[in-house]
Amino acid sequence: MTYNLDYLKELESESIFVLRELAAQFERPCLLFSGGKDSILVAWLAQKAFFPARIPFPLVHIDTGHNFPETIQYRDWLVEKLGARLLVGSVQQWIDEGRLQDETGYQASRNLLQTPVLLDILERNGFDCAIGGARRDEEKARAKERFFSHRDEFGQWDPKNQRPELWNLFNGRKGPGEHFRVFPISNWTELDVWQYLAAEQVPLPSLYFTHRRAVIERDGMLLADSPFLPKKAGESPREMQVRCRTIGDLTCTGLWPSNAGTVDDIIAEIATSRLTERGGRADDKRSDTAMEDRKREGYF
Amino acid sequence: MELLRFTTAGSVDDGKSTLIGRLLYDSKSIFQDQYEALELSSLRRGESGVNLALLTDGLRAEREQGITIDVAYRYFSTPRRKFIVADTPGHIQYVRNMVTGASTANVALILVDARQGIVEQTRRHAIIASLLRIPHLVLCVNKMDLAGYSEAVFQDIRQEFESFAAKLDIHDLYFIPVSALHGDNIVDRSENTPWYQGPTLLYYLENVHIASDHNLIDARFPVQTVLRPNTDQYHDYRGYAGRVAGGVFKPGDEVMLLPSGFTTRIERIDTFDGPVQEAFPPMSVTILLEGDHDLGRGDMIVRPNNQPSVTQDLEVTLCWFDARKPLQTGGKYILRHTTREVKTMVKEIRYKLDVNTLHRNLEDRNIAMNDIGRVSLRTTQPLFVDEYRQNRITGSLILIDEQTNNTVAAGMIL
Questions:
Q1: CATH 3.30.2350.10: does it fit domain B2-212?
Q2: Cβ–Cβ under 8 Å, residues B395 and B314
Q3: Using CA atoms, how far apart are residues A3 and B279, in angstroms rounded to an integer?
């Protein structure tokens, strides 16, 4: 008998350890749910970590008002299946109340508008720990992120003032008003996530699979045609067979020409892909350090 | 497929970032858009070729200064293994990062510049790797292209390092002549070093035996949290959730609970996917015991015939991370060990370790940022500890400053 864990099981075990650790160390954690596969995975792992008890924290969704309708449907289905509690922060409501203003122009997105709504919901509910589905392989600025990431009382991330993490000892102690972001799947890659979701047969939003959709081609990206997407002169939608590789807002999520209809098809597609998944995110293309800048401001 | 974690260290300009970039590139872990961004950045900086080092230069501050200032994690895989790389900076002041990266690693890669040979930082990195008990150490003699691919150069460095390493506790030591820039002996065997018969770096990483890196002898289960669903279906359920830190647990095993010392048996070992017949490191499981017991977070399940030391007095090798103030004799800190948190006082600083020579300095006992020393601690509550050399999980601890809540030290129990 050899005592070897398959690497996906080892990653699962590590994530479960982190989830249990944060549940023990923080008084009021919550899980940031975006509707994307990474936050679905975290919710799935949370179910495993606390079984047969229920997930001991609510899911928080920041609804930009520009979501794909499929995302909302899936969210509500998952929450019910897990028996979890859901809190929604609405960017649209903030805009309607005049507390936020939409960006204008063709690159307008509600990405940055999420931050104040998120910080507000954390504060009003007294959450001291927000669990996220970020992975270190996603983007350069995330390669140095901790499992337990400290945020000051303004919700800001200071890359130079992060605590060293040694062995499996996580330090979640904090001062008044400070909180943590915790990333249980830090060590997973995109391929790991898909392979695990396939092995576990986790039901996923239909957006990840091939479907026909009216799209607009812009700057080498395919964007979903919708009333929320301002069109430039000469841009006209055309029907294509596409799927999402990441799920964000309608206005900035790049779609991929694809015929992948199952998770196994997706894995085969990724294995031969020549582009990273964030290659299709308009929000990351704004500048070389776009992610680092958003993180400092308290973005997920 | 197995997971292998390795850490890389080297002094500035040893080509560490290039080496990692090369591994990522040659194992086809770089995507087209990343490569294009790389070409663009290299061009913008006026470099002649594509600078693979830029792949791992993360934060803006680093790009501006051209140095790596924190541990960055990288991922790649081959059909044989999945790899997690802890890329740690080589600067003198960042011993902290090396220790952090080393704490979870199976393998340490230390780079030396073939033209420079063994330097002070090489020795320091090797000492830290041995203190942190990384099971396998590889010395990559890099920039062989600039040393004419000379076997004599390689052998001299090898001999010098071997005689130095004899003083250290290193069990598995390997030497590979490489050029990260040109890819010699990284993934493919180099035609420039016909005198070298050993494996390439990637072949070594794919095949080094790591299955016995976990302790499978001494059964240790630190309780993380107690699961009590309080639902109709699981009315009396009381499960002790945690991650196996050592040994193998099975249903029916007689176990001892610490600190109470009571003995009982394991009724069942649960997971979401159903009960398991065995639990071993690093599995996360939930243990159910026969009978009712007062057991909670910070307690430990062990075997009655194989117990850890239950003690309030610890001798530790301590690495100090706090730039604000040095370690204080008589100082009080929060100590975290497995899932247990207690207060501790520094009874005595016995000596400072010179991390370049291993010399024990009894005169200068001022342990400041990035210093390593031998310290004795007294805790308010007993801890259940093993020697770090026996078990990296039950033998390690961190100290936390009560005012700032920062992690100020990492300790290895002697």
A1: no
A2: no
A3: 9
Domain B220-302 has CATH 2.40.160.20: no
Place of tokens 């299709």: A280
Å between A234 CA and nearest CA of chain B: 27
For B309-413, which CATH superfamily applies? Translation factors (2.40.30.10)
pLDDT at B34 over 80: no
Of A17, A173, A275, the CB nearest to B32: A275
Asked if B310 and A145 count as a contact pair (C-beta separation under 8 A), the reply is no
Q: Is the predicted pLDDT of residue A12 greater than 70, yes or no?
A: yes
Partner A, chain B 304-343, Cβ-Cβ below 8 Å: 321, 334, 336-337, 339
Q: Answer whether B312's CB lies under 8 Å from B383's CB.
A: yes
- The burial class, CB within 10 Å (0-12 / 13-18 / 19+), for A112 is middle
B283/A21 touch (CB, cutoff 8 Å), yes or no: no
pLDDT(A169) > 70 = yes
CA dist., res. B317 & res. B320, Å (int): 10
Helix (H, G, I), strand (E, B) or coil at B110: strand
- Amino acid, res. B151: E
For residue B91, what pLDDT is reported?
A: 64
CATH 2.40.30.10 domain locations along chain B:
220-302, 309-413
Phi–psi pair at B63, nearest 5 degrees: -65, -35
**ipTM field:** 0.92
Chain A interface mutation, best of B28, B36, B73, highest count of A Cβ atoms under 10 Å: B73
For residue B249, what pLDDT band results from cuts at 50, 70 and 90?
very high
Q: How many beta-carbon pairs under 8 angstroms link A with B? A: 171
Using the predicted structure, report yes or no on whether residue A295 has a pLDDT greater than 60. Answer: no
The percentage of chain A sitting over the pLDDT mark of 90, rounded to a whole number, equals 47
β-pairing, B396-400 vs B300-302, is unpaired
Lookup result for tokens 């008890």: A53
Residue B21 in 3-state DSSP? helix
Parts of chain B belonging to CATH 3.40.50.300: 2-212
> Residues of chain B with pLDDT > 70: what percent?
91
- Sheet containing strand A59-63, strands side by side: A86-90, A59-63, A29-32, A129-131, A179-182, A148-151
Answer for the pair A60, A32: CB distance below 8 angstroms, yes or no: yes
Residue A180 sits at φ, ψ, to 5 deg, of -125, 150
User: B259: cis peptide before it, omega within 30°?
Assistant: yes
Q: What's the one-letter identity of residue B133?
A: R
Q: Output the six-digit token pair for B192.
A: 């420039």
Helix (H) or strand (E) holding A8: helix A7-25
Helices (H) and strands (E) in chain A, counts: 8, 10
CA torsion A259→A263→A265→A266, rounded to 10°?
80
- CA B267/CA B288 separation, integer angstroms: 5
Query: How far apart (Å, rounded) are the C-alpha atoms in residues B329 and B352?
Result: 13
Q: Kindly list the structural domains of chain A, giving each domain's residue range(s) and its CATH number in brackets, ordered by start.
A: 7-188+289-296 (3.40.50.620), 193-284 (no CATH)
Greater model confidence, B33 or B408: B408
Model pLDDT for residues A134-146, shown as the tens digit of each residue:
999 887 667 888 9
Q: Which residues lie below 8 Å from residue B159, measured CB to CB, with a gap of 6+?
A: none
